[in-house]
Specification:
By secondary structure, the chain is an alpha+beta fold. The chain has helices at about 5-10, 55-75, 120-130, and strands at about 15-20, 25-30, 40, 80-85, 100-105. Strand 1 (about 15-20) and strand 2 form a beta hairpin. The longest helix has 21 residues, at about 55-75. Bound molecules: guanosine-5'-monophosphate and zinc ion. Zinc ion binds near residues 3 and 96.
């Protein structure tokens, strides 16, 4: 499969690796949104969050917490976003699951946001019926 993150995970394409274990790598993003932007990726190919096994999802979150804590102190940022995109419409460009750790600074140019909407009574009731007690 022609997947850039599979190639990074198995060493075919070089990357700056900050952490590695049997399941995951954490690397520096080649096109950083800000100083210190890092990516966690599983060594095995899963296209997105929906495909990622639950056991790996749990391990990924623990590593992201640890790496974010180290980043936060090392680069002296003033905030940090954890971002994870699924699907082209949601901004995913590499279709191998990954999590972004993006340190934030007062003068950075990162844009992550949305206009705050309003939850109608109809949507609230419909969504609650669709989603509550389903996991
Ligand atoms: P996505 O948009 O899929 O959530 O994020 C993909 C990320 O992968 C982008 O931030 C992009 O800069 C990064 N990226 C793409 N190709 C490479 C690469 O070859 N090496 C590294 N280190 N990062 C990459
Ligand atoms: Zn892959």
């Amino acid at each position: 499969m022609d997947c850039i993150f599979c190639k990074i995970a198995n060493g075919e394409i070089p990357s700056t690796t900050l952490y590695e274990d049997e399941n995951f790598c954490i690397i520096l993003d080649i096109g950083p949104a800000s100083y210190g932007h890092a990516l966690l990726l599983p060594k095995k190919h899963y296209a997105n969050l929906f495909e990622l096994p639950e056991e790996l999802a749990g391990k990924a979150m623990i590593l992201v917490k640890k790496m974010s804590t180290v980043l936060n102190e090392a680069v002296e940022c003033e905030g940090l976003n954890v971002v994870q995109n699924n699907g082209e419409l949601a901004g995913q460009t590499v279709f191998h699951f990954h999590m972004h750790m993006i340190p934030r600074y007062k003068k950075d140019t990162v844009k992550i946001g949305w206009k705050i909407g309003k939850l109608s009574d109809e949507d609230r009731d419909k969504l609650a019926e669709l989603l509550a007690d389903k996991i």
